[in-house]
Amino acid sequence: LPLLQIKGVAKRYDSHQALKTVSIDMRKGEIISVLGPSGCGKSTLLQLIAGLSLPDEGEILLDDKVIASSKGMLPPEKRGVNMVFQDYALWPHMSVLDNIAYGLTIRKMDRSAIRDRVTELLDLLQLNGLEKRLPPQLSGGQQQRVAIARALATQPALLLLDEPLSNLDMRLRIEMRTEMAYIFRKLGTSVFHVTHDPEEAFAMADRLLIMREGEVDQVGTPQQCYSRP
Ligand code: ADP
Ligand code: ADP
């Protein structure tokens, strides 16, 4: 059974059809990268999965439960889906530690269990020694590592990445795309990743979803997509 099923989803803004019947299934533990030029509908698709907007047609199922259709949606906080944004969106007044622990604290997880989980994430994302800093005291790459740690802390069923490396310089992008793919595979995290950067998509994805003008142009492994004209 697929983890995520997107079935004939369409979305229109006023007179513009941003998505025209997009369908794809994703299995648990898979990393899918959605690739395509600006305006092809990547963010719109991600927002539908995240619960930030409603489809006009079709439905989205997570673990075989309908989470979105034209009739309504399960609210974002009840989906088991976390998102990492291009601009990190950390809480600037909270320490690195408190940012990462936030989702666990509001779920009233046991304090020693929170400490263990946060320690594991600090190790995994190479953030040791930065626990007490505030986000404005970190580099862009470090902020994005904290945002990823925060999103992983609650062990979401699905992690959404919206152009996660776009604000970083080229050297960091190359370093982090390899590292992120390693971490997600190690943890078995299911990832739906949106980018306009082909190299990032090819480096991270098990499968690519290549979009064009609101439609799916190609779906396949990087190898399959690369060898097609
Ligand atoms: P991408 O993420 O691939 O750049 P988007 O999903 O953001 O594409 O946008 C798809 C199309 O829908 C674009 O033509 C964009 O201008 C349009 N669009 C996106 N959001 C809105 C909106 N809130 N209102 C009107 N048009 C929108
Ligand atoms: P990206 O290309 O990184 O996805 P965009 O610049 O397309 O980002 O969109 C950024 C935000 O602006 C999104 O929330 C999108 O829904 C909104 N947006 C995009 N195009 C339009 C539009 N034509 N009218 C209104 N809002 C839009």
Automatic annotation (TrEMBL):
The complex is composed of two ATP-binding proteins (OpuCA), two transmembrane proteins (OpuCB and OpuCD) and a solute-binding protein (OpuCC). GO terms for molecular function: ABC-type quaternary ammonium compound transporting activity; ATP binding; ATP hydrolysis activity. It comes from Cohnella lupini. The keyword Nucleotide-binding applies. It is an enzyme of class 7 (translocase). Its EC number is 7.6.2.9. Keywords: ATP-binding, Nucleotide-binding, Transport. The lineage of its organism: Bacteria, Bacillati, Bacillota, Bacilli, Bacillales. This is Carnitine transport ATP-binding protein OpuCA.
